[in-house]
Amino acid sequence: MVMGEGSGKKKVEEGVIVGGLLVAQCILAGYVVFVHHVLSLGANPLALIVIGGVASSLFFLPFAIALERKKWPSKISRTLMVQFVLIALGGTTVFQELMLLGIKKTTPAIASAMPNLSPGLIFIVAACFRLEKFDKACKYTRAKIMGTLVCLVGAMAMSFLQSPVSSSSPQLRTNSEPATADGTYYDWILGCSYLFMGVVVLSLYNVLQAATLVSFPAPLTMCSITSMMGAVFTAILQFILEGKIDIGSPKIDLKIISGIVLMGGGLVGGCVVFQTWCIGKRGPLLVSIFGPVQTVCSALLSALLFGQILSIGSLAGMVLMFCGLYVVLWAKSNEGHLEEERGDVEKALLS
Q: Per residue in 198-237, pLDDT tens?
């Protein structure tokens, strides 16, 4: 009877994880499209990060106090504080700034597709820190290397084979056609470079986040703290760079700001917390499986709302990226029997 209850509970948990990750990717896709529109109105990316970070922290702090207070350590160590600072800087300030700059110069579909590189990059980072088995003679290691290379080729094809003019909305296309194509193409490549650098930061951030959850198993609390810290760091950065903290455009009215607070703070914050919990339960690679869902949703919404169409070459690059992604995940899933020989940190990072 006990075994049956345990099995049933595990199935329910698996269903919650799978269903929740699907919903989370759809919500994140909608937010990416919304942010692309807000940035096109002249919003300052740093200001969006500050608003979203503060809203997310304030929204989830009461839940963290109610649900995770017993898990808090009696004393915060220096190591844990350093981890919080790095997570806040990497996951909030640097990652979001790079992604927002990339979204502004490309499209929501491209911005949603690029993070699918993260499993391969996580493998590289983990292997460098000897948290991932690296054996040239092992077929699964070779498969992960090959999958990572295919992902990178797909990302390059997706970036270089897309026409920036054809992917823009009809209004922007009309305004940009008289200009030279070189400047537009340069901005496109620059945007893709921002997205790629953001994914590198995301991979480092995910590895650090998973390691932190081992010693601090309170995802709501961690996200609340790091979101507020990241918002503060971002506000300081904006003040240093611009001499003021400003939204960036008079077109950003109270209605749009409310949307940023509700979507960026509440819905997206909830998705981040849920994904953090899933990382603690199953590891970042499982969470990465659902990345293509966000890409598809973003592409559909962009096409329906703004008329942004991906080229055949860019779609082919996405297919290559997804193929490489699942090769990496297939290789990792077949190494599951090795997890028992490793410590808890490795399980949380790479399971």
A: 888 888 887 788 788 888 888 888 888 998 999 999 999 9
The whole-number average pLDDT for the span 177-195 is 71
Structure tokens at 85: 């600072």
Question: Please, are residues 107 and 167 in contact by the beta-carbon 8 Å criterion?
Answer: yes
Stated pTM of the model: 0.74
Per-residue exposure over 336-349, b if at least 16 CB sit within 10 Å of its own CB, e if not: eeeeeeeeebbebb
Amino acid at position 28, single letter: L
DSSP one-letter string for 188-236: HHHHHHHHHHHHHHHHHHHHHHHHHHHH---HHHHHHHHHHHHHHHHHH
- Taking residue 329's Cβ as centre, other Cβ atoms within 10 Å add up to 18
Q: Does residue 55 register a pLDDT over 90?
A: no
For residue 341 the two structure tokens come to 């020989």
DSSP state of 70: G
C-beta of residue 87 within 8 angstroms of C-beta of residue 205:
yes
User: What is the model's pLDDT at position 134?
Assistant: 66
